[in-house]
Amino acid sequence: MENNSEEGLILLNEVVRDVLGRRDINLELKMTALDVDGWDSLKHVQILYQCEEKLNVRFTLQEIGSLNSIGDLVKIINKRLKK
């Protein structure tokens, strides 16, 4: 994949598309879950779980609690990709 910062966004786009069953999603860093049709609280948990599975990690409660935007989740993903 491309450089690490883009890799996290690519991974998240794939996960969200799979979980929501939609190929027309193109996430941007400034977006929030509210900007994505179908991304509700249950789908949020599924998205986080699928990200963890793909990365073979577990997000901390602090990381999950700090999520306010797509960019926040991408930062966490990128941090985990570097390990």
Q: TL;DR?
A:
With 83 residues, the protein is mostly helical. The protein is 60% helix and 0% strand. Helix 1 crosses helix 2 and helix 1 packs across helix 4 (70-82).
Give keywords.
60% helix; 83 residues; Non-ribosomal Peptide Synthetase Peptidyl Carrier Protein, Chain A; 4 helices
Largest sheet: none
Low-confidence stretches: none
How many structurally independent domains?
1
Q: How much helix, percentage-wise, in residues?
A: 55-70%
The CATH architecture would be Orthogonal Bundle
The end-to-end distance, rounded to whole angstroms, is: 16 Å
Number of helical stretches of at least 4 residues: 4
Average pLDDT for all residues: 93
Stated plainly, the CATH topology is called Non-ribosomal Peptide Synthetase Peptidyl Carrier Protein, Chain A
Kindly provide the radius of gyration, computed on alpha-carbon positions and rounded to a whole number of angstroms.
Answer: 12 Å
Query: Can you tell me the CATH superfamily?
Result: ACP-like
Number of beta strands:
0
Percent strand? under 5%
Structural class: mainly alpha
